[in-house]
Amino acid sequence: MAFELAEVQEADLPELARLAVKAWGASTDGLSRHAFPLHDPIVMYPWRLRQLVEGFKKDFTKHFKIVDASKGIIVSYASWEHPHQTPSKEASQGGISESDIPDTFFPAGSNIQMIKDFYNELDRVKAKYVDQTRDYSPITVPSEPSYLDLRAIFTDPEYQRQGLGSMLIRKSLASIDAEGRRCYLEATPAGLPMYLNLGWKVVDEIRTDVGKYDVAEPYVGLTPFMMREAAATQGQKYVADDRNLRAGGPTVR
């Protein structure tokens, strides 16, 4: 089976939204299942498409896709948010937290209080490990650490466990390491082994007891918060790995 890795085009966004809904709807992550109406694609699709459209407009985001060349369909994609200058309004107010997002932003049927409490806890954890003033600033000094935030990665359930997710991430890691940047993310339990294998380390975790939110099923969600230091030697390794992958079938354009 041959795969092609390429940058996402604007015309791809509806297909990416459908892929995200399909992949997330099949998620075994209990926290997401309790927080969002994943079972309802009619609600989730327009919400996901809106996110993608807004994100695509930002010049500090990069989006990559993997296409099954035999079928011409997108089977995996990843979105990266690069360091960027914080708008003056946000800077003067100390930044705009995700927990400040209005209720109307979330898809109908979401457990909004659970989501906002999660974002509040995420803000607390980020404050411990991420310097927001440098996180979204251009790199002006080569030795100055910066960050990249892996915003979203989804793979069609029918194509999972074929290394496509790690292939997408390695595409960016080589340049990230060469520029001396750090990355952070919040991992799902399913994605944790892949991120550990690619150099991230768990530095904290976010604990969510869904029983506090009128949810019948008892469940405590543990979300690992991970950081990855830049490593020049790893950059060479990942470039080599990509060459090996391409030799085995996938092509990069």
Order of helices and strands: EHHHEEHHHEHEHEEHE
Helix content: 25-40%
Rg, Cα atoms, Å: 18 Å
Task: Tell me about the largest β-sheet.
Answer: 8 strands, mixed
- Class inferred from helices and paired strands: alpha+beta
Number of helices: 9
> How many β-strand stretches?
8
Instruction: Give the termini separation.
Output: 17 Å
Share of β-strand residues: 15-25%
Mean pLDDT: 77
Characterization of the model:
The protein has helices at 13-25, 30-35, 41-57, 88-92, 112-129, 132-135, 164-178, 192-197, 232-247; strands at 3-7, 61-68, 73-81, 147-155, 182-186, 201-209, 220-228, 251-252. By secondary structure, the chain is of the alpha+beta class. Strands 6-7-5-4-3-2-1-8 form an 8-stranded mixed β-sheet, sandwiched between helices. It is globular. The model is unreliable at 88-96, 133-145 and 232-253 (pLDDT under 50).
Task: Please outline the helices and strands.
Layout: E1 3-7, H1 13-25, H2 30-35, H3 41-57, E2 61-68, E3 73-81, H4 88-92, H5 112-129, H6 132-135, E4 147-155, H7 164-178, E5 182-186, H8 192-197, E6 201-209, E7 220-228, H9 232-247, E8 251-252
Parallel strand pairs: 1-8, 4-5
Antiparallel strand pairs: 1-2, 2-3, 3-4, 5-7, 6-7
What does this entry show, briefly?
This protein has 253 residues and is α+β, with helices and mostly antiparallel strands.
Provide tags for this entry.
globular; 253 residues; eight-stranded mixed β-sheet
